[in-house]
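To whoever is on call:

I kicked off a structure prediction for a single chain this morning and the downstream step that reads the tokens threw a length-mismatch warning. I double-checked the sequence; it's 275 residues and nothing unusual in it as far as I can see. Pasting both halves so you can look.
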Amino acid sequence: MVINLDRCIGCYTCQIACKDEHVGNAFPPVTKPQPTFGQFWIRIHEVERALSPSHIRVHYITIPCQHCGDAPCMKEAKEDAIYRRKDGIVIIDPVKAVGQKQLVQSCPYEVIFWNEAENLPQKCTFCAHLLDDGWKEPRCVQTCPTGCLNFGDLDDPTSKVSKLLEEMKGEIFHPEFEAKPNVYYIGLPKPHLSGTVVYGDKDQCAGNITITLMGQGDKKRKTKTDFFGDFAFDGLGNKTYTVQFDARGYESQTQEVTLKDDLYHLGEIILRKAK
């Protein structure tokens, strides 16, 4: 699956389609029914990005099972309760996995859920029962109104997903898990740095001043503050940067910031008149 987050509008249609397909419906030998409440086999994570204290932008990250090539859950499963099909889809056997609650904690992506009534761990199956019946894509992909979700054979260079990854820069979610996921993302939010610049002598927003961002091994990046003195840099890395503020008639200032989180707001930067 290739998920183009630049197209996701947070409509939750994929999640509703998953519920419609699986709640109250068993599809042996693939899965037992999904409970009405408490499970989201495709989860939407909302990420707020502050362009300024008053300007918040929301990004949506769609998270199904990643159907990992080196799945941690398979290593924790007893009696081959989790297996990988020839097409790469990872399935929790609804008979062999009964009682194996440890599988919920085994997933670093937190997409395995516990069905108390069935005494069974459950997750997204990529609607394997539909694929076996001739469908070309899971219900979530079929119902996505914006083309955010894309499904196909990555081993086929002519497939839609292969072409999409070739045309646009795709990446995996949480590469530090080293699970070799088979879900790829376009447009994953990167660390984001923002702030507001103010003229100290006037107590006014400092519009149209130059902000320079310098990071080790990176080219210098420059931007201008807007009318309200706000600025933002996106697509950054988790490392230390130097931010420089330059305005005619005012002292040049620098700040060093180490980005560890997705968002970092410097607050107000007060410019002082040059002597």
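Update from on-call: the warning came from a stale cache, not from the record. Cleared it. Sanity check on the structure: The domain at 192-271 is CATH 2.60.40.10 (Immunoglobulin-like).
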